[in-house]
Amino acid sequence: MIIRAKQNITESELKNLKEYFTSKNFQLIDASSENVKVFGIIGDTSKLIEQDIYTIPGVEAVTRIQAPYKKASKEFHPEPTIVDVNGVKIGGDNFVVIAGPCSVESKEQIISIAEEVKKSGAKILRGGAFKPRTSPYAFQGLEAEGLDLLLEAKKATGLPIITEIMSEDMIDRYVKDVDIIQVGARNMQNFHLLKALGKTKKPILLKRGLSATIEEWLMAAEYILAGGNPNVILCERGIRTFEKYTRNTLDISAVLAVKELSHLPVIIDPSHSGGRWAMVPGLSKASLAVGADGLIVEVHNDPEHALCDGAQSLKPKKFDEMMGVLKQIAPIVGKKI
Ligand code: PEP
Ligand code: MN
Fold first, then answer.
1. Residues 77-106 pLDDT 10s
2. 16 and 117, same domain (yes or no)
């Protein structure tokens, strides 16, 4: 971190400024010249808040050099993290496809979709039990019964399961029964929930918030990592922009940014990004080509009658065709699918 002091800083202000940092065990390097008073702050600056430093009399400007997150950063952990989900490895040279319906609707629905996606090469089954809907009048999910049905689909197919958690009070049940706990876009900054998940060792899929910057997203991951849970998988699911044609705007460059900044695996959700099933194969090919570590895709056997997100759900046949293409591309880009 670099601090520029005001040219007219007084001797006592300067003393106070130096003490502020040395009392917190930071080293202060004076790099001032005749025309400018600058100091380098050496130490773990992730613990410092820029806004607080501006309150010290005589401070003109504060520039952060190191990222505000530490455990999520590549400097802290240069090797890519590979998250092991009951033997399915996410990260490294693997491209893992997670697929299933937006919501669990019935036993028949979830088991038949699970069997279909497994046949096509999906390695993990998705299905919402507790649904975060914009309208309180929309289908809210089968809730606890949805979790029971996911477990039945897991038993029938052997596929590990992922489902979204909405509140801390469900953590014990999720830790017991779910293989990956999904934190939805709307809860990315639910810090109490993130802290509680940090105390578990379960793999967590952390979706990017609707309007979150990459730094905010990595800071959210930092909450889970700082709590002691290293099993974080990031998921880019499209962000809010001015564009209305697509449901969200897939920020494909976020994958490259995360790969540059962090060691955590990052997957893409092409379904919530485009919001239209016809876009899903194209966005999925782009995800594989850009270097994402996998996908989470919505698949429904009867999208017209789906209780949630039918418009963006692929039918099993289309999903199978898409998987065929992805399997051809994967070796070209050095990924195992
Ligand atoms: C979902 O995956 O069903 C979902 C609600 O996604 P998001 O949190 O990305 O909107
Ligand atoms: Mn959905």
1. 999 999 999 999 999 999 999 999 999 999
2. no
Instruction: Judge if pTM exceeds 0.70.
Output: yes
| Residue 16 near residue 28, CB atoms below 8 Å | no
Residue of minimum CA distance from atom 10 in ligand 1: 185
Structure-block tokens of residue 88? 């399915």
Question: Whole domain around residue 243: which residue ranges?
Answer: 83-333
The pLDDT tens digits of the residues spanning 29-58 come to: 999 998 899 999 999 898 899 999 999 999
In a domain, 268, yes or no: yes
pLDDT single digits (tens) 173-188: 999 999 999 999 999 9
Is residue 77, in this structure, part of any structural domain at all? no
Ligand 1 closest atom vs CA 238: 9
Contacts with 155 (C-beta within 8 Å, 6 or more apart), sequence order: none
Q: Is 203 helix (H, G, I), strand (E, B) or coil?
A: coil
Q: How far, in Å, from the CA of 309 to the mean position of ligand 2?
A: 5
CA of 272 to the centre of ligand 2 (A): 6
Decide if 162 contacts 178 (C-beta within 8 A): yes
